[in-house]
TrEMBL record, chains A, B:
Residues 145-219 form the HTH crp-type domain. Pfam families: cNMP_binding (PF00027), HTH_Crp_2 (PF13545). This is Crp/Fnr family transcriptional regulator. InterPro entries: cNMP-bd_dom, cNMP-bd_dom_sf, HTH_CRP, RmlC-like_jellyroll, WH-like_DNA-bd_sf, WH_DNA-bd_sf. CDD domains: CAP_ED (cd00038). The keyword DNA-binding applies. The keyword Hydrolase does not apply. Keywords: DNA-binding, Transcription, Transcription regulation. It comes from Rhizobium herbae.
Amino acid sequence: MIEPLILNLSARDIITPREDALLSSSIKRERWFVAGEDLVVQGTRPSYSTLLVDGFAARYKVLENGHRQITAIHIAGDFVDLHAFQLKTMDHGILALSPCHVAFADHSNLKILTETEPHLTRMLWLSTVIDGAIHREWIVAMGRKSAKSQLAHIFCELFIRLQVVQRVSDQCFIFPLSQAVLADVLGLSLVHLNKTLQKLRQEDVLTWSNRVITIIDWKKLQDVAEFDQAYLNLTREPR
Amino acid sequence: MIEPLILNLSARDIITPREDALLSSSIKRERWFVAGEDLVVQGTRPSYSTLLVDGFAARYKVLENGHRQITAIHIAGDFVDLHAFQLKTMDHGILALSPCHVAFADHSNLKILTETEPHLTRMLWLSTVIDGAIHREWIVAMGRKSAKSQLAHIFCELFIRLQVVQRVSDQCFIFPLSQAVLADVLGLSLVHLNKTLQKLRQEDVLTWSNRVITIIDWKKLQDVAEFDQAYLNLTREPR
DNA sequence: CGCTGCATTGAAGGCGGTCAAACTGCGTGG
DNA sequence: CCACGCAGTTTGACCGCCTTCAATGCAGCG
């Protein structure tokens, strides 16, 4: 059940079979959500953290005027709310963007890991820190890149992250978001997102139909996005 | 030297005198930077993390077209690059926005703390996680708030954060950034930032002159910003 | 067959960007 | 003491990216 998590961590350091087993025994209960359901409700104080085993989920906030901003997209192998282990209260909600298979790690178990497993602790810490690096990259894209470049950036990032957890084959991956949701990721209007998307398609950079994205010209996509994957920390080294 | 750090951590949980001393002995070397200097250079692999003892600093990235985006503002008591302890390579630079007094914590010392001090480890982890929460709040503001609201939000956030480390008195705090820098924080142009700022001033929400900001109408500022300080996690509880 | 959710297109308008110039305060040097 | 330069702030004019509103197209499904 925790294979994608192990893939995620193993891309950054060596995880021993013992550590694998320890994690596995800390993450037992599982559950399925349907698309549109809240995995975690804003304002609650969950006593566990949620590992996304399969599917897509999003962290989001809704403003008074009803506008929504998505602050993170999560895929298989991501702890969607590991930070809540430290933060206690959820300052945002987490939404299933597709059918989601999740598993829960009780905070009490995680706390025990921090008392007894320094390396695993650092690896879990690392994964929250990578979340932060992704946030920063989004800030740069939102603040100083054109809509087209920003859109290309998201596709680049997801392409790489999905590769890590083996969700890409033949330059294709399943992408179950509607354009309305993607607009809320980028902070754009649905109309403008649609028009921007068509530019990328017309330039034969990618195709997107039937919830499947195919990257046609990876090099050009990266160029448009000014994408450098360094921030994803995909180097295996002692941490 | 680490008093502001202790103020920061103590606002979120009890730090024992023993832990205080341990931290203090892990953070020995100090240094001063002048405004405009890089505290940390993008692409390097520092073997230590940098605690900002006094002053203002910013994390930033520069794009190919020369535009700069600031992704975080740091004040006294912040570890500006604690995440580098996990990430190893700096994927962005950190700039002194004022004269900065900093102190260094060797990663080797931090690693020892993770092996022997689970509670302190969690507190340091917490501080990187709060950084992430701030990033998310910025994303929401950049994506879905008006320039005026976004600007008000930054002022709200800094006002609260500066209070925690006792840098506010009489609704006033020192704010050494130029408008050009603040524009790079918000992802706006300098011209538009200036005009937005004047709206806040004309509405008697705040004043800003001689590098000192005075909050005149805190309630209104929060309303404009749609600000809720929950994400800063200023509740003292066992973590 | 009509409903529903999603994608697409067009038109009009505004927020914010760019360019350019003037202004202010301040330290330096003549 | 004044001239000068410099950095930062302010203002005005024009432009364009992106938003909003509204309508149409399209596919899946009861």
